Amino acid sequence: MDIKIGELARRTGLTIRTLRHYDALGLLKPSGRTRAAYRLYSPADLTRLLHIQSLKTLGLTLPEIARALDDPAYDAQEALRRHIEVLEARITQERQLVRQLRALQGAAEVGWTEVAHTIALTQRVARQVGRFLQVAQDIAGELSLSDGQLQSLQHQTQEASDDWETLLTDVFTALEAGLPPTSAEGQTLGARWQQLVRHTTADRPEIAQAIGRAYEHRLPADLQAAWTFVSEALPAQADGAPMTTHTTVTDLLHPDKNVRIRAALDLGAAQHLAALPDLIGRLGHEPDFFVRENLTWAVVRMGPDAMPFLLRLLEGPDATTRLQVVHTLSKIADPASASALTRAINDPDDEVARKAIFALGQMDHPEALTTLMGGVGHPDAERRNTLSTALVEFGHAALPPLLAALRHPDAQRRAHAADILGLLGNAGAAPALTDALQDNVWDVQFAALSALGHLPGEDAERGIAQATRVADPRLRAVAQRLLADRPHHFASLRERLKHRHAQGGRRQG
Fold this sequence. Notes:
Elements: E1 3-4, H1 5-12, H2 16-25, E2 32-33, E3 39-41, H3 43-57, H4 62-70, H5 76-106, H6 112-141, H7 147-159, H8 161-176, H9 184-200, H10 205-218, H11 221-233, H12 245-251, H13 257-270, H14 276-283, H15 289-301, H16 307-313, H17 319-332, H18 338-344, H19 350-361, H20 366-373, H21 381-392, H22 399-405, H23 411-424, H24 430-436, H25 442-454, H26 458-467, H27 473-508
Antiparallel strand pairs: 1-3, 2-3
């Protein structure tokens, strides 16, 4: 009996995304389709899937698995030999860790605290690396690439998987050690990253550019630090004597992107103000992501002198150029750009508008806060999410206008304000959110209750308890769950408060 993709995912524990990815690669194509074009998998397809998963456990890449299953001339022995080499390399890394631990063990002054710290650091870095690789794979699978580009990326990434794991381990270790990206070690990591990107993408700048954009906007917050480190390390690779100004400006138009990167680096390192028009002009036309990032770095190095050029470019007709300009302004974070960014949040291009919102969130400027508050309750969900993140950056300063927004006539604005207050995490919002539980719109009530669940303090707990007695059974169920989970999340906070009060009482006595 044939089954649909959802049922196959449920029975096997694989995700629907994985099965679709196998289909796109030609690794596991469903034998049939329903009238509505849903995939149907036959018993033979399930047998093939079993073979795929079995070969994966041996360490074979997906292209290798496809060849093993479909190519009679495929040399399985050679594939196994290569993977034995990979395993031996990993064993070597583990032995290095053992030697490090033994060195700690043999040092008289080192105790269990240092040993435990080393083990914890190793485990923490390994988790971060594994998570980054998984998220990167998910992002790559969702890129708007042709089938040929996607297959090429998949193949090259699998071939370089161990190199990526090693490099990411070094990057996250550098972050743990607080290593500056501008240091010699940071520059080396940046150079290795750039070289590996070129290898992984088969030196195809359009793929590298798509990946760079996706990482910038879609990496989770806990992984953004690694991407920021690498992005800042790349521009720092300006070794050797700088070129003359004339030669460097000319090289901004060179057909080799590596020459263009070097030109941007040299201009930025020397802070050649006379080259600003050329740098910014190229910024609006450069097709390669990494070159654009280096151009951005060079322009940011010029500081406020770059502002007039950037603001003029922001008025141009090309959305890609405007996006790069807003990105550059967000790094300069000069309050003088607040007015221009305020206009940019109404840009006809959604990505430019969202980037402008993000840039305003980086500025500790009253005008920026007022502007962003005007967008609370926007009908577009992605715009609301970006606004939420930006407003949280203002911390306590955002509390009064958000509390006022809870009383706004527009229900969507009230619900969005409640959502942001939950993210803000300020216990002072609890009374107003408790009042919002009586709102005449269910979405506002639910947003207020969810926000209370994120707040510490007795006021928030009383508000949740009050919600367990409302008429709506859905809200009651949510409130009961929040109240049941609350001791687990806030017990330590309450203990600290009790201890503080007890100490205060003893001091008064």
